Amino acid sequence: MSDSVTYTVTDGVATITLNRPDAMNSLDTPTKVLLRDTVQAAAEDTAVRVVVLTGTGRAFCVGQDLKEHIGLLEANDTAALWSTVPDHYAPIALALADMPKPVIAAVNGVAAGAGASMAFACDFRVVADTAGFNLAFTGIALSCDTGISWTLPRLIGHAKAVELLYFPRTIPAAEALDLGLATSVVPAADLSSVTAELATKLAHGPTVAYGAVRQSLGYSATHTLAESLVYEAGKMQQTGDTEDHHNAVASFVAKEKPTFNGR
């Protein structure tokens, strides 16, 4: 069993950690398979109320392992080269973006290529002040993947997304915050504690409502207003039937602070 991705669950917070520090948490095939399966498992685990994605060492994730990629190019193994996008990268992006609970990227170091894409699929990006983003795809004459064509324009607009994808460079944390790529920037030494505070707050919140909101936002991005209104109505009914909603209304009437159990 590979330890290139680790997974822990504590008090409703699942932490998924990319653990190839010597390779800048780059993604070889075993790591991609394990990451895909781990993210999907976290999405389906009802005991998990918030997911944190992070890395060990100097990098969050620098995307595809280029040593592996070069080997496949030299072997002319086109099946393995390009099947990885639908088999690995796309399912990872979809699981991060669609799961019915909040997701935090704790960006401990550089996030490049698919690493940046994964961070952008999360709800929150808590970024160390020593970290940065690099949308590296065209730097090696490739298109973009892992959902960045969908997430990036929605974060910073179409024109800026084109610029950053055409002309990749390392975007430092402060600029990432100004652009809207980072939700917050914190001293590197405080990344763990700040992330834990946010994760704990979310883990004690109305999990089903959070999931419904993030799914409604995703749905509306590719549907008409009329279709989105119908979708919203369904999500209102879903959340209205939850224990959390009924308890919250009773707490409001009693002028008490509600307790949410995520169901």
Automatic annotation (TrEMBL):
CDD domains: crotonase-like. The lineage of its organism: Bacteria, Bacillati, Actinomycetota, Actinomycetes, Propionibacteriales. GO terms for molecular function: catalytic activity. It holds the Pfam family ECH_1. Gene3D superfamilies: 2-enoyl-CoA Hydratase, Chain A, domain 1, Lyase 2-enoyl-coa Hydratase, Chain A, domain 2. Signal peptide: none annotated. It comes from the Bacteria. This is Enoyl-CoA hydratase. Belongs to the enoyl-CoA hydratase/isomerase family. Coiled coil: none annotated. It comes from Kribbella pittospori.
